[in-house]
Amino acid sequence: GLGLSYKKDENFGEWYSEVVVNGEMIEYYDISGCYILRPWAMSIWEVMQTFFDAEIKKMKIKNCYFPLFVSSGVLQKEKDHIEGFAPEVAWVTKSGESELEMPIAIRPTSETVMYPYFSKWIRGHRDLPLRLNQWCNVVRWEFSNPTPFIRSREFLWQEGHTAFATKEEADTEVLDILELYRRIYEEFLAVPVIKGKKSEHEKFAGGLYTTTVEAFVPNTGRGVQGATSHCLGQNFAKMFEINFENEKGEKSMVWQNSWAYTTRTIGVMIMVHGDDKGLVLPPKVASVQVIVIPVPYKDADMQGIFDACADTVKSLNEAGIRAEADFRDNYSPGWKYSNWEMKGVPLRIEIGPKDFANKQVRVVRRDNASKSDIPMADLVEKVKDMLNNVQQSLFDIATQKRDACIQVVHTWEEFAEALGQKKMILAPWCDEEEVEKDVKARTKGDMGAAKSLCTPFDQPELPEGTLCFASGKPAKKWTYWGRSY
Ligand SMILES: O=C(C[C@H]1NCCC[C@H]1O)Cn1cnc2c(c1=O)CCCC2
Ligand SMILES: [Mg+2]
Asked: How many angstroms is it from 433 CA to the middle of ligand 2?
């Protein structure tokens, strides 16, 4: 039938797999871990891309495109960068029937593709800052359970790669980009995130430090890294000899950043807002914000009703609202209601004989199913307000639900209990990597181990003498912990 056969709160994994297909976002593909992004998903990616691309252009960052393929020698150049990840790298070994002389890697990320050319292009301080971005796909042959949008073997992203003369400039840009990522989640996807720094153990090994926006999925009690903005320090400059002559004529290495967000953003939004009727799309990213449906009646003036629907769509479109009408004559209104609810369209407008006679329309909100009758004369303003209310309400409710999952703890017992309750845990930590590894070891299990998610920039008060929840040593900071994707 039309509805979902799994409930979000009972079978989350099955609910998610079903809702991404029934909502016409994803089609499963015959290669495991690879998915077809249908237009209903691609349009969301494009809304975010339009915003982010415009913002980085304001920062004088330029788009480029580097090859998909990486030669083996270059890829192996940075051992710690690749060491832990080697099994994830996909290789081309043949063309047709013949073996390639040298296997060629498919980019899992583009540091090693780009940086030999950064070295060639950057000679003097006038060549700095060099700030490039590319919108592309990358391939990582993941083995843990593939999940549409959240963990796939190929995904779309943007990857920014920048080089500066000073660390200060790099540090500033890291946070400027992280703020854009926060805006993507909170202003577009209506998903609350926490800005913070990754631990030494969780950061990108090739970099100096990693900042992150951390989201959380209440249903699974798992944190999810929403996007990352790294300062690479001078590590890659050393490796790839990216030097410049500064104003004093001295030769020095550049300071670099790299930053990315991916199509994982869409999966997080679905997990947070979706319900048992299907997707629930925040208006900002919905390619159809309002669907207008004629409600036929046996001897009613249907032409008048169809015209009213067309006029409604026209006036909404002229006001910049993405509206469509569903005139398909082979489906009942009831079928259409369920179909567009499954696809998560924020507002539905019904126009039947009574509405038409009273020069009003019936508006139904997808997020809370509330109904209201609006005079046609006030329609555009009222719909604009309703769309803003839906956007804000989705964010407020998601924030309340996320906050309800946060548990502050001081001892291991409290930590273990909160973990069992699928919480995101805020705990005082001594900031020692050995202790972090110990937490992972002590929480290993079939649900996956707990790990540090981030040390929030917004630090609560840490009273003198507070002890680390895991080691009992003097705590240095408050850190979020939990299971993650
Ligand atoms: O990709 C990065 C760092 C950086 N890459 C560029 C964009 C920002 C940020 O993601 C880390 N990383 C993750 N995953 C992998 C690699 C890797 O370098 C390399 C090998 C395959 C898997
Ligand atoms: Mg990975």
From this structure: 20
Yes or no: say if 423 and 450 are a contact pair by the CB < 8 Å rule.
Answer: no
Closest CA to 347 of 327, 331, 325, 328: 325
**How crowded is residue 358: how many other Cβ atoms within 10 Å of its Cβ?**
11
Q: What ipTM was assigned to the predicted interfaces of this complex?
A: 0.97
Dist CA 18 CA 277 (whole Å): 11
Tell me how far the alpha carbon of residue 235 lies from the centroid of ligand 2, in angstroms.
20
From 154, 162, 204, the mutation candidate for ligand 1 (largest count of ligand atoms within 8 A of CB) is 204
> 109 CA distance to ligand 1 centroid (A)?
5
pLDDT per residue rounded down to tens, the chain (485 residues): 579 999 999 999 999 999 999 999 999 999 999 999 999 999 999 999 999 999 999 999 999 999 999 998 888 887 666 777 789 999 999 999 999 999 999 999 999 999 999 999 999 999 999 999 999 999 999 988 999 999 999 999 999 999 999 999 999 999 999 999 999 999 999 999 999 999 999 999 899 999 999 999 999 999 999 999 999 999 999 999 999 998 889 999 999 999 999 999 999 999 999 999 999 999 999 999 999 999 998 877 799 999 999 999 999 999 999 999 999 999 999 999 999 999 999 999 999 999 999 999 999 999 999 999 999 999 999 999 999 999 999 999 999 999 999 999 999 999 999 999 999 999 999 999 999 999 999 999 999 999 999 999 999 999 999 999 999 999 999 999 999 99
Ligand 1: which residue has its CA nearest to atom 1?
109
Query: From the CB of 313, is ligand 1 less than 6 Å away?
Result: no
Is the pTM for the entire model greater than 0.95? yes
How far is it, in rounded angstroms, from Cα 443 to Cα 236?
A: 34
Ligand 1 close to Cβ of residue 153 (< 6 A): no
Q: Is the CB of 88 under 6 A from ligand 1?
A: yes
Question: Residue 108: CB within 6 Å of ligand 1?
Answer: yes
- Expressed in angstroms and rounded, the spacing between residue 300 Cα and the centre of ligand 2 is 59
Does ligand 1 have an atom closer than 6 angstroms to the CB of 262? no
Ligand 1 in reach of 89 Cβ (< 6 A): yes
| Ligand 1 in reach of 407 Cβ (< 6 A) | no
CA distance 273 to 213: 18
Round to whole Å and give the CA distance between 374 and 235. Answer: 61
